[in-house]
Amino acid sequence: MNKKELIKSLELIAVYMELKGENPFKISAYRKAAQALEQDERSLSEMEDPAKLTGIGKGTAAVVEELRETNRSELLETLKEEVPSGLVPLLDLPGLGGKKLAKLYQELGVHDAASLKKECHAGNVQKLAGFGVKTEEKIISALEDMGNRPERLPIHFMLEAAKVVEQQIEEHVEIDRYARAGSLRRMEETIKDLDYIMVVEDPDTARKQLKQLDLVSDVIADGQAKVSLELSFTYPVQVDVRLVEEKAFATTLHHFTGSKDHNVLIRQMAKAQGEKVSEYGVEDLETGDVTTFSSEEAFFSHFGLHYIPPEARLGRDETEQYKEPFETIVRNDIRGDLHMHTTWSDGALSIEEMALEARSRGHEWIAITDHSKFLQVAHGLNEERVLRQIEEIKRVNEKYNDIEILAGIEMDIRPDGTLDLDEDVLKRLDLVIASIHSSFSQTEAEIMHRMKAALYSPYVNIIAHPTGRLIGRREGYKVDVEFLLQEAAATGTALELNSNPNRLDLSAEWLRKTSEIGTMITINTDAHSPDMLNHMDIGAGIARKALLQKGQIINTRSYASLLSFLQEKRRIETE
DNA sequence: GCCGTTTTCGGCCCGACTGTTTTCAGTCG
Q1: A287 and A201 in one domain?
Q2: Which nt has its C1' nearest the CA of A55?
Q3: Which residue in A118, A136, A217, A534 has a CA-CA distance of 20 to 30 Å to A373?
Q4: Which residues does the UniProt record annotate as the domain Polymerase/histidinol phosphatase N-terminal (predicted)?
Q5: Can you tell me the distance from the alpha carbon of A292 to that of A224, in angstroms, rounded to the nearest whole number?
Q6: Quick one: which residue's CA is nearest to B25's C1'?
Q7: For A256 and B29, how far is CA from C1' in angstroms?
Q8: HSE-up of A493 (CA within 13 Å, CB side)?
Q9: Is residue A178 in a domain?
Q10: What is the pLDDT of residues A515-556, one digit of tens each?
Q11: Cβ-count burial of A352 within 10 angstroms (0-12 exposed, 13-18 middle, 19+ buried)?
Q12: Domain that holds residue A365
């Protein structure tokens, strides 16, 4: 059994215990054990004694050992016999948790969606103590909605939805200020719902206006401090709004930005110094005085921490990392973008137009990197057109003295592992990106054969979207990422952090491993149109999530320093 | 079930909302 499967088993034990109505702390102990394993970088075989990890004690360690050695767990098997597996998916129904489901099972013999539906329609559910007519109605409608929407939606979908929601809020709700919170602010790859914190003059009016927004299909909760709405997009999207007084804005924003695990870390720190944290402020347990803060910076500083960017609030080791100043990347550090397309292949603007758009975003340098000839559908460039494009780029570059435009290419690595352009053309380019756009289903050996062609070519500076995944749609090709990170570092090849919210490739999870190895990373937008140049902010957010250091990120370099990086690989390999 | 530079027992992050209740449990984030 590998680590992933083992973690899954522990989580499954927790789920079954929940359905049995077990002690919630016991349940969370299994979840914590799973988490402890997940957050440890080592593989199962590299771990000598899992019980040494915080969060794994005698009981859970025994289960881990048993799973490791026998691939099964007595405890899990027993639970599976005691609790019908058909109940597991019912936990996803809103309003139904372990306790209610346990009761439904014990009292009515409910064991799956169909039997639950039957009991509801027979009117038996409303008769149970603690249940009622409304609960029964809600279950029926939840059962009907089940499967209409995936549990979480990809960030690119939610970013679009958020834009629409925010435009509506700004137009129709009387607000002093508001901010995004939740997993969208943390730049998670998938998002469950949209969260906003609002300061308003008149809460009653604001609540009324919120409920009247276009697209609102349901009001899920409507209280003094919180309004939950369902809006109809392609999928229904839940929007949670917290209404707060100005003085509680920072703490509320922090609280609802999460993550949940991050909040737990902060609250434990508070507790250790005799305080209690809630969305309303920090309470001194002795005096009962509540402190509020003018900003999140001030809030963190109260706990002796530097500002932790939302993306990095994972509830892992960030409260340790940010005790010392951590050189993370911010918008102003970004000096350029090395991956974009023009009308020469499948982009929307000319070279000059694209350069002006980049310049207006404060970039000091960019690279034009159209597709190469293998990508016929994108009107990729052959050798002759590459040479002509180099001339055109030179011409535009000479016209502007406040931005440097490099002549680059996004060259395909063909399925057979050959590069798509002749060496004597590659030599003439300032920068070469290599990409895989075909034969995604090859074996790992075949894919790695192609990767090696790029890694060991003296002309390839960057490997773009290294795993080829599309969030929520495509897994990506079979890459030995560990090897890629190592060899990229060894050969002076940078790996791309593709900022397109459909991709986010490499992922934050992989990027996290690069600091130690020393792999250079370039945050690229891969823009095909001017608005896509704005994706740089998303890429920077992912870099913060991965705790990348400034010095590792090519985008922070001056033009001269960028050039020396690009020339370094050629110099070494051609010597 | 886990954990301890106050603790080997008694806590375990904290609060809002709903629907069920006449003071609170369950669920959710």
Answers
A1: no
A2: B2
A3: A534
A4: 336-415
A5: 20
A6: A130
A7: 8
A8: 29
A9: yes
A10: 999 999 999 999 999 999 999 999 999 999 999 999 999 999
A11: middle
A12: 331-574
Q: What's the rounded Cα separation, in Å, for the pair A101 and A21?
A: 9
Nearest nt to the A274 alpha carbon by C1': B6
- Reading the block at residue A544, the tokens are 């913060």
Distance in angstroms, CA of A127 to C1' of B22? 19
What total number of domains does chain A contain?
4
Q: How far is the CA of A179 from the C1' of B18 (A)?
A: 26
Of A145, A161, A189, the domain-final residue: A145
CATH number at residue A443: 3.20.20.140
Kindly report which amino acid residue has its CA closest to the C1' atom of nucleotide B27.
A95
User: For the segment A383-428, what is each residue's pLDDT rounded down to a tens digit?
Assistant: 999 999 999 999 999 999 999 999 999 999 999 999 999 999 999 9
Nearest Cα residue to A337 out of A522, A465, A520: A522
Separation between Cα atoms, residue A282 and residue A380, nearest integer Å: 58
Distance of alpha carbon A53 from alpha carbon A39, whole angstroms: 10
For chain B, which bases have at least one atom within 7 A of a protein Cβ? 1-4, 11-21, 25-29
Buried b (16+ CB within 10 A) or exposed e, A65-75: ebbbeeeebeb
Locate tokens 């890629």: which residue? A484
The token pair at A563 is: 């050039």
